[in-house]
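Why does residue order matter? Because the sequence determines the fold. Keep that principle in mind as you read this record.
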Amino acid sequence: MTTERTTEATADGDETQRVVLHRRAGKWPEELAVGSFTLDYDDRYRRRICLVTDQGDEVLLHLNTATAMRDGDGLQIEDGRWFVIRAAAESVVDVTHKDPSQLVRLAWHLGNRHIPTELRSQALRIRPDHVIEDMLHGLGASLVNSQAAFQPEGGAYNGHGHHHGGSAQHETR
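Structure:
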């Protein structure tokens, strides 16, 4: 297979290579990674954006559809080099309850409000939101703020956004 090399000029006139391929963790040759991207949750769900590798190189992410990238996924640029995706630490809130069986009820309330939620073994992890935090306190939850990677569930619709039927699709980013 021949890959046509396409570059775009940046504001300072340099050419930027494009990402041409995304693969899930375990589905790409990780031993060939020459660098990495450390991205927060929002920047791991993109279709097109200029990114800077952890090594300082500018690369244009230019995928056909918005893709939810996870920690450990691989991106290949036009010249064949591979880069690993790393989830950046960001502000998160870990939600627990003195009765762990109540986590299901708390998860239902978060899902009912379409709050991106990471399911952990003994906790739920969300992003800070004082209104949601007040609701969770009212439901008996304990909350701990920290800096950690955030990887919420993709949901039944397998993406950042979702589709409720009909012919109109929407993209959230």
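The chain has two domains: 7-87, 90-148.
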